[in-house]
C-alpha cells in the first residue's frame, strides 16, 4: 500500500545518502520523503521529532 511505498522510498533515499553523503539534493529529497512518510503514517510531533533526531544522528555518522 501507500505506507509501504513511502517506507521503501525513505529506505532508498537513505541508501543513496550512504553512497553520496555530500549531495545536498539527496538530503533534501530524503527530508521530503520522510515528511511524506510522516504524513501517511500520521505520526505525532513527538515521534516525528525523535525520528528526525535519529535520522540526523545516522547521517552524521556516515
From TrEMBL:
It holds the Pfam family T3SS_needle_F. GO terms for cellular component: cell surface; extracellular region; type III protein secretion system complex. Keywords: Protein transport, Secreted, Transport, Virulence. The keyword Transport applies. InterPro entries: T3SS_needle-like, T3SS_needle-like_sf, T3SS_needle_YscF. Belongs to the SctF family. This is AscF. The gene is ascF.
Amino acid at each position: 500500500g501507500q505506507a509501504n511505498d513511502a517506507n521503501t522510498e525513505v529506505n532508498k533515499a537513505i541508501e543513496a545518502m550512504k553512497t553520496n553523503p555530500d549531495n545536498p539534493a539527496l538530503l533534501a529529497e530524503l527530508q521530503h520523503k520522510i515528511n511524506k512518510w510522516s504524513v501517511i503514517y500520521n505520526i505525532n510531533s513527538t515521534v516525528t521529532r525523535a525520528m528526525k533526531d535519529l535520522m540526523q544522528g545516522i547521517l552524521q555518522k556516515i
